[in-house]
Amino acid sequence: MKPYSKYLEDSFFIDWIYKPTHESDVFWETYILNNPQEQQVISDLKEVLLAIKTNDLNLTEAEKKEMLGKILDKMMSSKKTSTEFNLFKKYFKYAAMLLVLLGVGLFLKTCLVNKILL
User: Fold this and answer.
1) I need a labelling partner for 23 at 20 to 30 A (CA). Which of 63, 83, 91, 108 fits?
2) pTM above 0.90, yes or no
3) Which of 38, 48, 44 has the alpha carbon at shortest distance from 71?
4) Contacts of 72 (CB under 8 A, 6+ apart)
5) What pLDDT, on the 0 to 100 scale, is given for residue 57?
6) Which one-letter DSSP state was computed for residue 37?
7) Mind listing the pLDDT tens digit for each residue in 71-110?
8) If you ran DSSP here, which 8-state letter would residue 26 be given?
9) Contact indicator for 48, 71 with CB cutoff of 8 Å
10) What is residue 11's predicted lDDT score, i.e. its pLDDT?
11) Burial track 72-84 (b if 16+ CB lie within 10 A, e otherwise)
12) Contact at 8 Å (CB) between 26 and 86?
């Protein structure tokens, strides 16, 4: 299940985004405090929902949910790509250092062998 699916199906969550009340604010703030691992998903979802808020009467609720799902899928896949790239950068740095050390070691070994032979 996608991390945001349970929130999209929760009418109390959707109402909190579009028509917040004191009760819903307290509930969701408490929920986030008790579930800090969900904070990023909720924050991202709230941002996207507010950005795509539309009063277009021609779109059905199903069409709106489908459009939102596509946007969120794209958003999640771009985060995954950036995470993969960050891992590559992290390990590339170590590989480059290892290559430099091997090069220096080979150079020093060659110098010592040449000195001994001279």
Assistant:
1) 63
2) no
3) 48
4) 2, 4, 44, 45, 48
5) 56
6) G
7) 777 766 666 555 566 666 777 777 788 888 888 888 888 8
8) H
9) yes
10) 86
11) beeeeeeeeeeee
12) no
